[in-house]
Every structure is written in C-alpha cells, then in structure tokens.
Design a protein that fits this description.
By secondary structure, the protein is mainly α. The protein is built from 21 helices and three strands.
Length: 349
C-alpha cells in the first residue's frame, strides 16, 4: 500500500488568523480586501493624478504643476522637449526598453542620443523638483498631506491596518494575534521601505544587536541613523497605533484630578502609560513602547474596565506630559523601542 505524502500546510494569512481567533467574520475580511485592492490600484497612479483623486489639488492645479519650469521630468520627456528625439522615437524606446534598463541608456543603445546628450539630460533631471515636493513648495498641499500620499504610494496597507481603521478590532488585540502567530512586521524592514535607513545601516545594526541587550531602534538612535520621531513613525505602522506629536498639548485643569484618580502616579510610572483623556468608559493613553503592553498583566484591570485608545509619543514628549500631569519627573524610564525583530516573513493579507 502506497502512503500519500502531504507537504506542509501553507501558513494562514492574517485575515484567516483573525477569523480563527474569533475577532472577525469572513465578510469582514472580504470588505477589507476590497479596500486594500482599491488602495493598491490608486497607488499605481502618477503622483499628480493621486493628489487629484484625494482632492488635495484640482485638475487645473495639476496642469499648472506639469507645466512648471522647476518640475523634475523623465529623461525621455526632457529629450523630446530639447528636440533630441521625436515622439515616434520615444515610443520606440519604450517598446525596446529592456527589463531594469534605464530609459536614458535605452535611448543611447538605440542611437537616438549620444552619451554626452544623456549626461546633460541627467544633470538637468537632477536639478528638477518632484511633483509632490513642488506642490508642497507652492503651498498647494501640506507636508503632512505629502507624506501621507507618499506612504499610500509606497506601502501596501495590510489587512490588519484596514480592519483597525474600520473599527472591527482594536490595535492591542490585533497586535496580540500577530505576536501569537509571529506575523508582526519587522521594524528594520519598515524603516528600510520608508527610506529612513539604507541596507548597509540595517545590516550594521542587525549585527550589533546580536551582541547587545538594546533594541534595534535604540541602537539606530544611538548611532544617529534615525530620530525618535522616525522610530515612533515606524512603530506606529508595526503596531497600528497612531503616532502623535503632542508638543503643544495641554491638560484640562478641571479633568486632571479625574485622570490622576483613574491612573495613579505609581501605576503610570511602573507601566509607562499616561492618561490623556477620559470620557465615560473610554480612556486615551499615551505610550512609548507598545511591545511591553502586550504582555503586561498589570494593565488587564484597566483594559477590562475601559475601552482604551492608544497613541504613540516620543520619550521626550512622554517626559514632558508626565511632569505636566503628575507634577513630578518619571524616575525609572525604560528605553522606548521595539522588541527584537521577528525572523519570520510577513503576509500582507
């Protein structure tokens, strides 16, 4: 009798895990997948069209930007405008372009332009400004709007992010599921994709972390590779918790006593949490290290009593807010950062 040989079962995707754990239903995941697909299609649009779709600029604004003398243009467009090639040659080059070949090299290979022509075009291209940056410089969009648009183009939204935004699961519950099945995004890879660090820096800190008790984030900060804000932005994506710059935040004097009564000084200091607001059975907490909250049994009574909204803040911001609320500086502040990166690959759906 011949025994059938079965391969390993394919690992469950994040959506399937959330269904398995009882947090979501299949129709919830189907709805999230549709949102993810729509976002992926939008990300393929040119920056200008995406800004119009997001209603950040008008079609008329886009036409003005496309005709602006400071706009950075592709090599083939510059060559066409300078009369080095005609429209048919540009179309022929697009068809003849090899995989991973830069368009300028294609034009040279086909004999449409010389190497000297290409050098001049590259120099002109470098002097131009990207469309998004140009729109920001002309005050058509804000820095925040530009960053959010670039993020939507460069990063596929995970199913976890989407279902959190839909209010179907809390970031804390999602993080617990991701941790349980070792599905969390790696902090180093997030920073790489964001363009905050390069591959060489990533390899350097990864090797150093092997012989260190510090987190990857702490090592990168100490080396000057990233700032506290950049680490928080990456942790925000890793744990699906919004990062807030609360430099101008002020506590409501009338509600201070209620916040302190709910989360006492010693409890806040021990668990590195800071209440920012309280409304009925909903409390907003500032944290610097989401990883430590997932295993913290001391926080269970608070989480069972309230609906908890978390916001991520920098260490400096946390210090200032803590002093403002409790009138004392925090004594034993553990370094904020992420736990050591997991080694498993991450499924995005």
């Amino acid at each position: 009798m011949i025994k059938k040989s079965y391969g390993k079962t394919a690992p469950l995707l994040i959506g399937e895990l959330l269904i398995k754990e009882g947090y979501l239903k299949k129709e919830d995941i189907d709805a999230a997948l549709k949102i993810q697909q729509k976002a992926a299609e939008a990300a393929k649009l040119p920056m200008g069209e995406l800004l119009v779709r997001k209603k950040l600029i008008s079609p008329e604004d886009l036409q003005m930007l496309l005709g602006h003398p400071d706009l950075r243009k592709d090599i083939e467009i510059l060559a066409l405008e300078k009369g080095l090639i005609n429209k048919k040659q540009m179309e022929d080059a697009a068809l003849a372009r090899k995989k991973s070949e830069q368009m300028g090299n294609t034009l040279v290979r086909l004999g449409f332009i010389s190497r000297d022509d290409l050098d001049g075009l590259i120099e002109q291209e470098r002097g131009g400004i990207q469309l998004g940056d140009l729109a920001r410089n002309l005050n058509m969009i804000t820095e925040t709007e530009l960053k959010e648009t670039l993020t939507s183009k460069n990063f596929q939204r995970t199913i976890g992010e989407i279902v959190c935004d839909m209010g179907l699961i809390s970031p804390v519950d999602l993080s617990r599921v991701l941790k349980k099945y070792r599905k969390q995004l790696k902090i180093g890879e997030i920073l790489l994709k964001q363009g905050v660090i390069d591959e060489g820096q990533y390899q350097e800190v990864t090797q150093e972390q092997i012989h260190s008790t510090d987190t990857l984030g702490r090592i990168m900060i100490d080396k000057g590779f990233i700032s506290q804000e950049q680490l928080c932005a990456a942790l925000s994506r890793q744990y699906n918790i919004p990062f807030k710059k609360l430099s101008g935040f002020q506590f409501n004097e009338k509600k201070k006593k209620e916040l302190i009564k709910t989360v006492g000084l010693k409890y806040a200091e021990k668990n590195l949490i800071l209440p920012l607001g309280l409304k009925e059975q909903r409390i907003k907490l500032a944290v610097t290290n989401p990883a430590e909250m997932l295993d913290n049994q001391d926080l269970l009574p608070l989480f069972s009593r309230f609906e908890v909204d978390l916001v991520l803040v920098t260490e400096e911001n946390f210090h200032d807010l803590f002093r403002s609320l409790y009138g004392k500086s925090i004594k034993n502040f553990r370094a904020a950062g992420e736990k050591k990166a997991l080694q498993e690959d991450v499924d995005l759906v």
